[in-house]
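Lab notebook, design round three. We kept the backbone fixed and only want residue identities now. Task for the bench partner: fill in a sequence for the structure below.
Input structure tokens:
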């Protein structure tokens, strides 16, 4: 939410929708609170500021009434210190104006003004003083804009006429007139201002205005073309707007600003752009010294003199350095100056001494340096220059700096190239794989002269051969990607080289402990030196720091690791380290330290995968099995089922070298994962379960406490499922006992014992909470919500789904969070709150887009179709149903469920559309698949749907019978479904049938026209 006071008082919601605030007094209250956003304002202050000396008789109640009205549209809370408007400072345009002004972004700041400040609340006692303060700030900002930019004589004249006594403004106008050659007009302005000051205030002009007058008299302010001594800018400047503002601000405060970052980050171009936009550039007081070609420290002064178009005479080199420093100081000391020292890293000590001496001798000098490490002298302000922003799963990527730069350079070499469906995935991949580094992106874009964007992405693994098409006029070390990296590599000491090439083994970076165990003991000081030299980045400084290389540097370092013959030893250490790490953390993924464990796995994911894939590829059977066992449960909790399934397959393919218990465990997990979308064969599942028991795996691996009973249950072996539940329930592991009750609830539901299932679920939930397992808690809450909904208590079900969602979000379990969220949306629709249902499904869509999970987005399509259908938007639901079928048919995850889910959705659409014949055909398909799976809850749902079809056909007796059959199959009707509530209201409660579930199943199939032959 944003509040605007620089004009009439307005409020805009987060999505850009204007908010109706209410009457004048409510707007006054909002405006006053917005002057202290996020801070409580005392009640007495508010009363004084709103009513002044004539408050109402019961001022406190009057204020409370205003607050109540304001709360309907804005977040206002009562706190010990008073009433607080719960928005951030930057969400109020007054404070946004101050921030932009302080950052030098004056055009943006002034663009916030929409008229007179507080225009519609000026009657409030506080408004006049505040408005006057804002007006003064606006006028000062307008003056500052002219101070730092172009002097517009016409605009300054208009401002001067409105404010004839502002001396700073008069001085700016005089400068502007002199720049146009209108010296006499400028002198007349001075005379007029001096006269008015004397007549109206009895004072003389300020010293500043008198100096402008004197300069005008001397002719020093006449038109003059500034000399541009900066490198020629032949390409557009893209993607560094924030850095430009930051560096501009730093240069306003510090005399030395150093841009530090790796090679290819664009430090030189950024420094050039900053210098070109600096006010001193228009005055001809900016110089640029390129140090890349300097090889000896004593030549540094000569290069800077060359930037001044001066040179040494002859004589001793050491004496020439002192002479050169004197001449440089003379030139720079003639006025305010800015000197850019580009590429200091290879002369870092000499550059530091030179800069320190120069800043000491020339007080009005500012230096902007670029280097791969800081100069490390007093007063230095650092601005890290890293990669451009890279997209990470977002749909709209056009605003990311890396994408913008690539498109800009691509369109220059290949006119017509644009971001569309055919190119967006490749462009995102290029930006991500090249770390968003400007030079690499420019080299990749240059390849479009002779290659397609797809050909470029296919060759990124060979990036040093691919990216060799730089500008012929660039420095040699900037013409190829390899040359850029080699320039940095050659500046390292032997000790730094050894550690740098070894760190390449970590694709996801590492903390100090990992680096010291895998690469070298006592590495901290060498590591920090690599950070200083922009070879290694450091992240997460608030917690345990992690150190990582940009991908391009890591690829080069990995080459060096292989060349020096150390690769095998370091890789072996790396794999063993992650075997031990996952072995320590895996048991904790089912305890109260679960979130902490998830954090470790998230940070180390790519390292663990690299260790596992390497062990599989090298057929290190034991190591591969240990690594997979250490990470498998984390993948299941996070919903990374595809990676888990592929890894299990590859480890099982290693063959007889796997221990019997390991083979049995992974085979059981393989069958469980294959159970969706297909059911495991009864005999095969039973054999795998027996293998797990006989090999001791069932006692060794806690995850089998859930996996084995569920595998037996899904393979329709109730007796074996019961046995395995009993085995798990007798375990010494509290989590395994919770898993036993969780699995038992499925069995009891299938048997129609809903009360027993509820008891088992509650027991499982209590035990999962007791051991601290959020995953088990979230799953159990979701199950409880489904069955509470069947009782007709939609609100209680919503509360449970929301609790499950909160737990899943805390756990960062992406799939579980999506499932809880879309079920929540559907439950709101079942309740009849269609607006909230639609908001929830939109949030689910946005969440899925953010995490980039295409499979889950298919499920969201299905949920959205149901939400729209229940809101009566049949045509939209039908369109989404068609899209769901198109996309889901290609999904390996949904498999045979596509047919079933589509049939259910299309049947509901046909009923809503008044076409019961079509609905009957569709629901028969769903009854066929659910009955084949013997999924009793799902079969009950489609039986209820067939009852609705029969009712729509006018066959009321048949509909009533089907309701009774559904009650037998599930144990109760789904009274949380408004369609079922209406149907029961029409037909009455079905009579208890007193038949077995198997008979009910046979009768339902027969009613649907399905033959058992």
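Proposed sequence:
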């Amino acid at each position: 939410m944003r509040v605007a006071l620089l004009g009439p008082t307005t409020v805009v919601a987060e999505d850009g929708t204007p908010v109706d605030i209410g009457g004048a007094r409510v707007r006054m209250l909002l405006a006053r609170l917005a002057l202290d956003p996020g801070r409580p304002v005392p009640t007495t202050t508010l009363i004084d500021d709103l009513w002044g000396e004539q408050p109402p008789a019961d001022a406190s109640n009057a204020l409370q009434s205003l607050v109540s009205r304001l709360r309907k549209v804005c977040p206002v809370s009562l706190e010990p210190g008073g009433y607080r408007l719960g928005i951030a400072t930057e969400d109020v345009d007054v404070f946004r104006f101050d921030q932009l002004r302080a950052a030098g972004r004056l055009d943006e700041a002034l663009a916030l003004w929409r008229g007179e400040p507080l225009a519609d609340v000026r009657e409030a006692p506080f408004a006049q003083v505040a408005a006057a303060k804002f007006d003064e700030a606006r006028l000062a900002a307008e003056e500052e804009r002219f101070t730092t930019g172009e002097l517009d004589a016409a605009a300054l004249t208009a401002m001067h006429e409105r404010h004839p006594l502002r001396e700073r403004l008069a001085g700016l106008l005089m400068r502007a007139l002199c720049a146009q050659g209108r010296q006499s007009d400028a002198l007349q302005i001075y005379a007029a201002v001096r006269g008015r000051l004397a007549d109206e205030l009895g004072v003389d002009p300020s010293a500043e205005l008198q100096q402008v007058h004197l300069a005008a008299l001397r002719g020093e302010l006449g038109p003059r073309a500034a000399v541009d001594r900066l490198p020629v800018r032949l390409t557009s400047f893209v993607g560094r707007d924030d850095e430009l503002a930051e560096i501009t601000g730093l240069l306003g405060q510090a005399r030395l600003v150093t841009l530090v970052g790796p090679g290819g980050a664009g430090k030189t171009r950024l420094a050039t752009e900053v210098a070109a936009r600096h006010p001193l550039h228009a005055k001809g007081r900016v110089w640029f010294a390129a140090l890349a070609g300097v090889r000896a420290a004593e030549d540094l002064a000569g290069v800077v003199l060359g930037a001044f178009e001066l040179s040494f005479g002859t004589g001793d080199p050491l004496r020439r350095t002192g002479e050169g420093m004197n001449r440089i100081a003379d030139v720079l000391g003639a006025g305010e100056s800015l000197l850019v020292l580009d590429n200091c890293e290879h002369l870092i000590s000499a550059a530091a001494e030179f800069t320190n001496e120069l800043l000491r001798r020339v007080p009005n000098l500012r230096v902007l340096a670029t280097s791969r490490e800081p100069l490390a002298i007093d007063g230095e302000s650092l601005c890290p220059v890293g990669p451009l922003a890279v997209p990470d799963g977002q749909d709209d990527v056009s605003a990311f700096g890396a994408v913008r730069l690539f498109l800009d350079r691509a369109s220059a070499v290949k006119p017509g190239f644009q971001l569309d469906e055919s190119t967006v995935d490749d462009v995102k991949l290029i930006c991500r794989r090249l770390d968003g580094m400007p030079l690499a992106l420019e080299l990749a874009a240059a390849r479009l002269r002779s290659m397609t964007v797809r050909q470029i992405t296919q060759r990124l693994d060979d990036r040093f051969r691919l990216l060799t098409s730089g500008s012929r006029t660039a420095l040699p070390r900037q013409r190829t990607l390899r040359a850029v990296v080699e320039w940095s590599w050659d500046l390292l000491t032997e000790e730094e080289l050894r550690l740098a090439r070894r760190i390449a083994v970590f694709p996801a970076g590492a903390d100090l402990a990992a680096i010291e165990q895998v690469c070298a003991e006592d590495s901290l000081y060498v590591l920090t030196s690599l950070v200083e030299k922009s070879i290694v980045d450091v992240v997460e400084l608030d917690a345990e720091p992690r150190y990582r290389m940009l991908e391009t540097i890591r690829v080069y370092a990995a080459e060096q690791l292989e060349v020096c013959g150390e690769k095998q030893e370091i890789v072996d250490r790396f794999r063993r380290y992650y075997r031990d790490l996952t072995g320590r953390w895996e048991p904790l993924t089912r305890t109260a330290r679960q979130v902490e464990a998830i954090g470790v796995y998230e940070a180390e994911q790519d390292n663990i995968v690299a260790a596992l894939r390497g062990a599989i590829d090298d057929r290190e059977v034991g190591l591969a099995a240990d690594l997979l066992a250490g990470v498998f449960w984390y993948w299941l909790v996070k919903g990374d089922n595809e990676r888990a399934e592929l890894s299990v397959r590859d480890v099982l393919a290693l063959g007889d070298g796997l221990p019997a218990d390991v083979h049995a465990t992974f085979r059981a997990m393989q069958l469980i994962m294959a159970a969706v979308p297909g059911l495991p064969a009864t005999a095969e599942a039973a054999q795998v379960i027996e293998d797990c028991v006989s090999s001791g795996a069932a006692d060794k691996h806690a995850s089998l406490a859930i996996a084995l009973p569920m595998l037996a249950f899904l393979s329709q072996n109730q007796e074996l499922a019961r046995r395995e539940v009993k085995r798990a329930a007798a375990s010494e592991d509290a989590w395994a006992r919770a898993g036993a009750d969780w699995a038992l609830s499925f069995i009891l539901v299938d048997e129609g014992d809903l009360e027993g299932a509820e008891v088992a679920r509650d027991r499982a939930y209590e035990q999962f909470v007791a051991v601290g397992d959020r995953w088990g808690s979230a799953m159990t809450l979701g199950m409880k919500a489904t069955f509470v909904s069947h009782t007709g208590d939609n609100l209680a079900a919503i509360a449970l789904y929301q609790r499950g969602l909160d737990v899943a979000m805390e756990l960062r379990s992406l799939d579980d969070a999506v499932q809880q969220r879309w079920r929540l949306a559907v439950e709101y629709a079942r309740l009849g709150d269609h607006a909230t249902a639609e908001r929830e499904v939109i949030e689910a869509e946005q969440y899925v887009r953010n995490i980039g999970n295409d499979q889950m987005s298919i499920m969201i399509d299905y949920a959205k179709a149901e939400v729209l259908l229940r809101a009566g938007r049949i045509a939209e639901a039908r369109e989404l149903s068609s899209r769901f079928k198109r996309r889901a048919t290609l999904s390996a995850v949904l498999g045979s469920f596509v047919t079933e889910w589509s049939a259910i959705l299309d049947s509901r659409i046909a009923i809503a559309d008044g076409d019961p014949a079509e609905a009957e055909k569709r629901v028969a398909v769903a009854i066929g698949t659910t009955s084949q799976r013997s999924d009793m809850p799902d079969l009950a749902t489609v039986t209820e749907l067939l009852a609705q079809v029969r009712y729509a056909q006018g066959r009321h007796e048949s509909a009533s019978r089907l309701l009774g059959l559904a009650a037998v199959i599930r144990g109760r009707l789904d009274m949380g479904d408004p369609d079922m509530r209406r149907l029961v209201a029409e037909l009455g409660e079905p009579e208890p049938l007193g038949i077995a579930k198997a008979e009910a199943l046979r009768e339902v199939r027969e009613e649907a026209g399905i033959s058992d032959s």
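Keep this in mind before ordering anything: Residues 594-617 form the longest helix (24 residues).
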